[in-house]
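Hi Y.,

Following your request, here is the sequence exactly as I used it, all 212 residues.
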Amino acid sequence: GIEDAAVAPHTDSALRQDLEQRLIAALSTDISADAKGYVCRKLAMVGSPAAVPAVAVLLTQEANAHLARHALERIPGPEAAAALTDALAKTSGKLKIGAIGSLGARREVGAVPTLAGLLGDTDPEVARSAALALGVIGGAEAARVLQDAVPAQTGDNMTLLDALLCCAESLLSGQKVSEATAIYKSLAGDQHPRLVRLAADRGLLACLSKQT
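Below is the corresponding structure, written out as tokens. Let me know if you'd prefer a different format.
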């Protein structure tokens, strides 16, 4: 049955592929939203890039988008990332924010330029979500994008600063001490809130300990 196939060992690829094809076929029929949610939960377990087109259709449907994103976060390969990125131009509000969050959850470095373009979105929640996703993705490119956005930010920029701290932490964890140090130094100035400065100081101490 479906439950047995979903938990079948990865070595039993034929069984899992058969299940995947049945699940994909089910999504193209007129089943209920609850049934589509069930299918997406199973595809999160057994789905391959072959399932992406069928799941991607649901990203614009409020009733099904959450579980579709759940599946695409777990399906390997660039196809799932591309589907989430494409959905950004087709959605708004919560659906768009959800797709942004899923790109962050996948740590999609390739999505950094697209997310950078959303930092100035007219919807402040979309802009905030893009900053958070960049912080989760981390790395030097995401850090550069966030650093470029800080001077242009009017009003509360804590989300950008928090995301930058996350990038610095990920760089430090990856032994990229000089890059992390540069970010922490940029956040240690008096122009930034006290909590940010304290976090930057702690980060600088951690960088020093890595160098000794």
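The CA atoms of residues 5 and 14 lie 10 Å apart.

Thanks again,
Q.
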